[in-house]
Amino acid sequence: MAGYLIRRILLGLLTLLLITMVVYALIRFMPGSPMDTDPAMMNPDKMPSAEDLERIKKAYGLDKPVYEAYWIWLSNLASGDMGISYNEKKPVTDVIESRVWATLLLTVPSLVIAYLLAIPIGLWSTIRSGKLDERIAGVSLYMLYAIPSFIAALFLQLLFAVKLSGTAWELPLMGMHHSDYDEMGVIAQTWDLLQHMLLPVICFTYVSLAYYSRFIKANMEEVIRQDYIRTARAKGLGQMRIILHHAFRNTLIPFVTLLGLSLPSLLGGAIILEQVFNWPGMGQLYFRSIGTRDYPVIMGLTLSLSVLTLLGQLFADILYAFVDPRIAYK
Amino acid sequence: MTGIIEIQNLRTYFNTDNGVVKAVDDLSLTIMPGHTLGVVGESGSGKSVTSLTIMKLLAATAEINTGSVIFLGQDIVHMSEKQMRKLRGSEISMIFQEPMSSLNPVHKVGHQVMEAILEHQDVTKNEARERTIELFEEVGIPDPAERIHYYPHQMSGGQKQRVMIAMALSCNPKLLIADEPTTALDVTVQKQILDLICALRDERQMAVLFITHDLGVIAEIADDVMVMYRGKVVEQGDVLDIYENPQHPYTQGLLNCRPRLDTVYKRLPTVSDFMDTTIGDDGNMTITAKEMTDERKQFFINTGRGRLLHKHSELQALGYTDDSSSVTKDATCVSESETPLLNVRDLKVHFPVRQGLLQRVVGHVKAVDGISFDIYRGQTLGLVGESGCGKTTAGRAILQLQKSTAGEVVFDGSVVSSFSRRKMRPLRQEMQIIFQDPFGSMNPRMTIQAAIVEPMKLQGIGSSRTDRIDRAAALLDEVGMLPEHLRRYPHEFSGGQRQRICIARSLAVEPQFIICDESVSALDVSVQAQVLNLLNDLQERRGLTYIFISHDLSVVKFMADMMAVMKDGKIVEFGPSEAIYRNPREEYTRTLIEATPCDDLENIRRLVDQRNKQRSGTI
Amino acid sequence: MTDNNQQPSGALTKATRSPGFWVLAWRRFRRRKLSMLALAVVMCLSGIAVFSPMIAGTKPIVCKYKGNLYFPCLAYFNADWENPIFHKDRFRKRYPRNLREKDPESWAIYPLVFQDPYRPVRDGEWQDKNGDGEWVDRPGNPYHGGLPSKLNFFGTYKRGVDVFASMVHGTRIALLVGFVSTGIAAFIGITLGAIAGYMGGAIDMVISRIIELVMCIPGIVLILALIAVIDKINIWIMMAILGLTSWTGMARLTRAEFLKLKQSEFVAAAQSIGAGPLRIMFRHILPNALAPVMVPIVFGIAAAIKVEAGLSLLGFGAPPPNPSWGTVLNAGTSNYTEWWQIVFPGIAIFITILAYNLIGEGVQEATDPRLADPKD
Predict the structure, then answer these.
(1) What share of chain C is helix, strand, coil (3-state, %, to 5)?
(2) What is the Cα–Cα distance from B24 to B14, expressed in whole angstroms?
(3) Which residue among A232, A236, A253 places its CB closest to the CB of B120?
(4) pLDDT tops 70 at residue B357
(5) Interface pTM, i.e. ipTM
(6) A116 pairs with which residues across the strands?
């Protein structure tokens, strides 16, 4: 098992290295790189100043040969230096750090909720497979899955912030805090935050929930056909024990891999959703940086989001080794 | 004395899209304690459905139409699922065909056995563990205290089947259902498992329902035999009666179409030589018997090619003197002046084993480890051995489908082992292969026509497209299929038909030499006989040379002139197949022969006597 | 059994060919009512996309002007396809009045709905017959707050542009993006997956790393990063970017299929008759690998439509003047009280994605190997 894990981590490091190359190449080789953007197309206020340009030139080594420049950039990166944002005139690492928590506040709860709900729903629909209630639930989940989260977000905003405004059901349209958040007590602050979080978290959760529960059901149906389930039945075990102990335990194997695979879309979805909800997270920062062509931040974020995904996949692969005993001996 | 289980007029039907399928149609049986009922039949005979009906583990589309199943006085048919669960695993246990997939891969084997004990008995976890260790010991798993912590993938097939048996025995069942428990195992392991089941049966006075397609296995283990054919019981009786004096033509056919080790036939009779089956419009089947006269029997004994052995001098060098090599009257030797068609010298195929971080090569699996032999034109060489002995790899390496590590393969004067893939291509016309799995060896997206025409096109045979199609039609005719089958897809055919098509595809390039790699292993015995006869006919008609690879010693012995017994990548014994069978020189060959189930009447009588003595002794 | 029904010779030419895999799959697909309904929806949307200039527009489908026949509506497909004569004669996109005034002999057939996806219709641009049979001027679109009405079915946005017309023309972008970008993705994914799976070894290692790399960068992040560095973006570049970032799933699947099928006996059988690697890849393995890859392709179309709508919502989608569903949504986010700018395109996007997903589901069931290749 140790061999498998170390090999997996080494491959992850290799991928990390490749990611840095891609990010660097994006800056360096693309037409329309910061050096030759048509100034006429851009808002003069947001134009990088001459000072900025000089700094970029230095940071990305645009005056040096590729390999040398990449190496310098990489070593800066290793020491935590991603350059300086020219919107906020602060180090990119600080800018990103100030946004990370807001994004995690939405993604982590939604991931946890999606997993916690998807498992019982998936198991329930396996047991009730083909019955009327399961089919209604199945079709509803299917419809949910087809609604893009940003459309659901807009619809929910319409409903709770516009249509129900003034009623007890009203929820804030966007943002993370009420305008007088700072004057509130701790409990009121928490309540305010929860109110603001509710709609975004729902939008983050439901697609994964629908997808995961369908995934579990499909895999359970595959597993239930296996010979060892017949063996378990021939032993005289009860249905619950067969479903949970024998079938679900095997379904966990592909389910764990799904965790790693679903992170990119979750983080990608954050960009649109945070913009729709005006949520001050990494996604919104990314969107704004593109609007203002704040290259150091764009690249810093691309890198951070990719590394987050990579870590998620690595985590999934490590879990996998624990879930599937066959891995340990390969 | 009443039986442990009594079944009366059982009918189990399946409701499918195409109507009702009568999987089991009017079956009655009784099994006494300590006795074994062997149920034998080919695929689709309903033998497995019978066992699943007793366990009530049928698929949702199946229903018990009529009949009663009484187990120790309890009516199983009308039992609730809850009551049934109490019986399953404790009173009635079951062992399945595939030990590989019948154990849950994510749980330790000990845990899986303990689970059954804890489900049915009021014991603590520790007691259950103790009991499991005892059971493992009883079924012959070495080092049981350690092995209970193993996962299924850490054990061999035979050991997994022992775990399955331990699980089945864990609650002292009154009835053990064994559904083809040894089919996936090697003969030597099969022998051990059969002995184990017999011993446990006698010791515990269990009733055993033993289901198999193999009449040899039935002869070794059963007291009574039931023969099933397409859902119906065609014959039922005492084991000796069935083998000595089979009444039903189907039983007669089955008993005769198997190439037994001591068979007298040169050409195998098939079931259709004993009976005709017609299915009426109402779906009912009528069987018309055909009498097997002595005259017809003589035809099967006398017609067919004789053995073609190696050169006299070579046989002598191998140590076979004249009389031992001419055990069959019409064996001839290759003339001294002939050169071999295929010459294999010290062929080795080693697979690297990679391990660790950098996947460094830490060792080699010596799949084929230095084998040498010659084959002369028109001969059949048998390669026999158990799974993992390297016989299939050897076959593929000879055809250059698998890169060899060392050694030389000379075919008709060309050193093909040194050929590049491209240079090898024209030679593919001369050397062909027929695979084991008739489902897997045909491209499901190609029509039969495309499959047979493709090799001709690649090898430049036939003048035009129409010419090739005509040739394909003629080939189908030659292998006993119809020209209009050309326009069909593989999935429309049965296993035996597909294998015939595969043979036609191999013949399309008019090869001299064909490797038959387990080509009949996946087929039912009656179909197997037809295909073996076809292969022999083609050999005579076209002067083909075969390497016949199989795990089944009796089939190899029936087909091959010369035989090579393989073990661990090496040839342990080489010689005329008759001589090897009659007088094996190596311990391993002897083990193989002894382990091959034998339905010789002498043997059955001996076994029956032995059982009777034991019973009178114990009671 | 087939052996028994011996037919007279000459049957070879008469014997009908058995239905192939795809024919059987189509038959199974047809039995699924929901998937067929979804297919009908997609067909219908394709019809709307193709005939969009004839459904909603302010340019005549066909007109006779100064003795010649013209098809000005084609300008909605490509601005260059509008005959220069209308430009020369200073029509300024106002056909009804100009035609009447500049050539009294002229006639024209107009689209079903006289509304333009690019600009608001002004007062008096079009005339309706009133109850007395007189021609009266139709009022122009409201400048803002244009609720759905008899004239603007789905309301208006952006200073009076008709939402319905924009959405009809937006169908074109939505479907085109789905097909083209998924086509690109499928081409890359299948090619790389096939090479990696078939060749194995070092090549497989390299391609697998590339796949892992692209998978690690969240799709929309990569898309936005590419958009950020490419300055002149158009709809085709956009589709290429979408395609370039969404092929990994298909590549992984194709690779797995090739790895599996490479080991199968029919491939060994093909080798044993002397088939070369290309023949084995294309003639033997690919047709068998295609069925499972079909499913992510169909789901990929839905995903591409979703991503394009999302990008348009952010303001990075199909660049103007292309009307797109997401662009209408984007307008909606600036003023939530104008709900019709969110509800109608939202429903259209939902229905389209649902339809593609249902088709994908149908394809999955229809090509399921357990059903598709029954063993007897």
Answers:
(1) 60, 5, 30
(2) 9
(3) A236
(4) no
(5) 0.84
(6) none
To the nearest whole Å, the CA of B597 is away from the closest chain A CA by 27
Instruction: Estimate to the nearest angstrom the gap between the alpha carbon of B422 and the chain centroid.
Output: 36
Does B89 touch chain A if contact means CB atoms closer than 8 Å? yes
Structural domains counted in chain B:
3
Q: Cα(A75)–Cα(C331) distance, rounded to whole angstroms?
A: 44
- Is the Cβ pair A329, B153 closer than 8 Å? yes
SS3 for B229? strand
Residue B561 has φ and ψ, to the nearest 5°, of -80, -50
Tell me which chain A residues have a C-beta less than 8 angstroms from the C-beta of C342.
154-155, 158
| Predicted pLDDT of residue C373 | 43
Q: How far apart are CA A118 and CA A112, in angstroms?
A: 10
Q: How far is CA B69 from CA B5, B51, B87, B207, B410, in A?
A: 7, 11, 13, 15, 63
- CA dist C286 → A283, C23, C258, C267 (Å): 40, 17, 8, 11
My answer on whether C303 and C185 are in the same domain is yes
DSSP A105-121: HHHHHHHHHHHHHHHHH
Q: Are residues B320 and B422 in the same domain?
A: yes
- Half-sphere exposure at residue C54, Cβ-oriented, CA atoms within 13 angstroms: 10
Separation in Å, CA B391 to CA B369, B496, B534: 11, 23, 23
> Does C321 lie at the interface with B, CB-CB under 8 angstroms?
no
User: Which residues does residue B415 pair with via DSSP β-bridges, in sequence order?
Assistant: B410
Alpha-carbon distance B100 to B155, whole Å? 9
Q: What is the rounded distance in angstroms from the CA atom of residue A312 to the CA atom of residue A325?
A: 21
Q: Which residues does chain B have within 8 Å of residue C287's beta carbon, measured at their own beta carbons?
A: 443, 445
Domain of residue C367, residue span: 164-371
Single out the residue in C107, C133, C161 at which a domain terminates. C161
Q: Does A5 touch chain B (CB under 8 A)?
A: no
> What is the span of the domain harbouring residue B498?
444-510
Prior bond of A91 cis (ω within 30°): no
- Tell me the pLDDT tens digit for each residue of C232-271: 778 888 889 899 989 999 999 999 999 999 988 999 999 9
Let me know whether B387 and B528 are in one domain.
yes
Q: Do A228 and B104 touch (CB under 8 A)?
A: yes
The answer, yes or no, to whether residue B189 has pLDDT greater than 70, is yes
Neighbours of A130 (CB within 10 A): 9
| Amino acid at residue number B157 | G
Measure the CA–CA gap between B299 and B314, rounded to whole angstroms.
Answer: 33
Beta bridge partner(s), residue B404: none
Q: Is C37 among the domain residues? A: no
Question: Are A154 and C218 a contacting pair at CB < 8 A?
Answer: no
Question: How far apart, in whole angstroms, are the C-alpha atoms of residue B179 and residue B199?
Answer: 18
Note whether residue B574 is domain-resident: yes
CB-based contact C328:C167 (threshold 8 Å)? yes
Per-residue pLDDT of A185-214, as tens digits, reads 888 888 889 999 999 999 999 988 999 999
Q: Are B507 and B542 in contact (CB under 8 A)?
A: yes
Q: Spell B99-133 as b/e; 16+ CB within 10 A means b.
A: bbbbbbbbbbbbbbbbbbbbbbeeeeeeebbebbb
Q: What is the mean pLDDT of each run of 10 residues along chain A (330 residues)?
A: 81 89 78 48 54 68 78 86 81 90 90 92 90 90 90 90 83 82 85 91 91 91 91 91 92 86 82 90 88 82 87 86 75
Burial of B322 (0-12, 13-18, 19+ CB in 10 A): exposed
- Please give the C-alpha separations between residue A292 and each of A43, A87, B102, in angstroms, as whole numbers: 8, 8, 61
Q: Where are the alpha helices (DSSP H) in B438-524?
A: 448-458, 465-478, 495-507
| Backbone φ, ψ for residue A95 (5° rounding) | -60, -45
Q: What gap in Å lies between CA B193 and CA B183, rounded to an integer?
A: 11
Q: Which amino acid is at B426?
A: P
Tell me which residue has tokens 């066959």: A326
- Model confidence pTM above 0.95: no
